[in-house]
Amino acid sequence: MSQVTHASELTRRRMLQGAAVALTAAAGTVVLGVTGPAGGQATAAGPEASDEFDEVFKGRRIQGRPVQGGGHHHTAGYTVLVDGEELHMMRNADGTWISVVNHYQTFPTPRALARAAVQELQGATLVPLA
Amino acid sequence: MAFRKNQASLTAKEKRDFVNAVLALKRAGRYDAFVSTHNSFIISDTDNGERVGHRSPSFLPWHRRFLLQFEQALQSVDPNVTLPYWDWTADRTASASLWDAGFLGGNGRSSDGQVTTGPFAFAAGGWTLNVRPDSRSYLRRSLGSAVAALPTRAETESVLAIQAYDAAPWNSSSEGFRNNLEGWRGVNLHNRVHVWVGGHMTTGMSPNDPVFWLHHCFIDKLWAEWQRRHPGQGYLPAAGTANVVDLGETMKPWNDTTPADMLDHTRHYTYDTGF
């Protein structure tokens, strides 16, 4: 069963049940890193989201890690830093990722998203998130 | 009544008037608000939370309203200017007249992506980016580098043939005309064009590149074309959908315009031809 299906089912459940929806899907399914209806709760799970990384790519330090709940930018349930500056990112319903510098194409993992941002930045520094 | 034309058929004077009106808005400090508004919606529109401008049914009426606001701003500078559209199924290469120095300027240079020709080149002095994702304040493009080809006419026809406007769960995973046009599913029309242009067009601050307006004007025209071909279909969802703008609900940030208000574009402007 694909993540696409899981995400769609989870979304439909939310639509039907309104705000009071448990993030736990039916037994045996994977809970995805999706944002709750209130916009604040983000549950990070799934194989990609648990994949922390800290590497130097083309001379830039990129770091990624899951975040719990929280910050107003953390709707993805995950955070990526480029040389310590946060990259705004978001998770799509099918489990793929986009960022503020690659907002119209999807990437399979946060690491791929971070590397694409480094390519796009060509040495420039991210403007801090407001 | 505004009359919107294909950019390829504009006279040299019409191109000049459009460019001058855009530069005048920038000079007056009125342009960057459009960039900020677009970005603030694109980063807050989420598949499982509130979504208004993107990845949702109101993608089309929201951008129609957004373009009308921009066109009205242009007309406050020059009443004869209207938005032109870029038919990327026809003008498919970096050598198209759209990218001439006398209109939008050309591709970015290979070293850093900086646009160095035309009125929006940094060195021309009238186009410094203030609302931007990173430290670079010059406009960037990278035509055709991240994706090889713009959508074809046949691909566009295949999307226009889709019957239903949209479908649950009303986000980037939906079936239906809107999401296939937006490009999260299927042959990918709208998103792919942003990626084909590259540079700032791939970012949430994409209106920094004036080609944004010509691209979205064509998307708007394709919506009108779909309506003409499917008179029995209409905007969905009708009512009672959490986090999504229903037919009769107002859209942020204006809070005075519903998708229903935006269905008939001929109240505001007409297009020169069908698709």
From TrEMBL, chain A:
Keyword Magnesium belongs to the record: no
Molecular function terms from GO: copper ion binding
Species, as recorded: Kitasatospora indigofera
Protein name per the record: Tyrosinase
Keyword list, A-Z: Copper
Entry's Gene Ontology BP terms: melanin biosynthetic process
Transmembrane segments: none
Stated family: Belongs to the melC1 family.
InterPro entries, sorted: GriE/MELC1_sf (IPR023199), MelC1 (IPR010928), TAT_signal (IPR006311)
One Pfam family linked to the record: MelC1
Organism placement in taxonomy: Bacteria, Bacillati, Actinomycetota, Actinomycetes, Kitasatosporales
Source organism, top-level taxon: Bacteria
Keyword Protein transport listed: no
Automatic annotation (TrEMBL), chain B:
Location of the Tyrosinase copper-binding domain: 54-71, 209-220
A Pfam family this chain is assigned to: Tyrosinase
Cofactor(s) needed: Cu(2+)
GO terms of molecular function: metal ion binding; oxidoreductase activity
InterPro entries: Di-copper_centre_dom_sf (IPR008922), Tyrosinase/Hemocyanin (IPR050316), Tyrosinase_Cu-bd (IPR002227)
Organism of origin: Kitasatospora indigofera
Family note: Belongs to the tyrosinase family.
Gene3D superfamilies: Di-copper center containing domain from catechol oxidase
Superkingdom assignment: Bacteria
Keyword terms of this UniProt record: Copper, Metal-binding, Oxidoreductase
Protein name, as recorded: Tyrosinase
Coiled coil: none
Keyword Transmembrane: no
Keyword Oxidoreductase tagged: yes
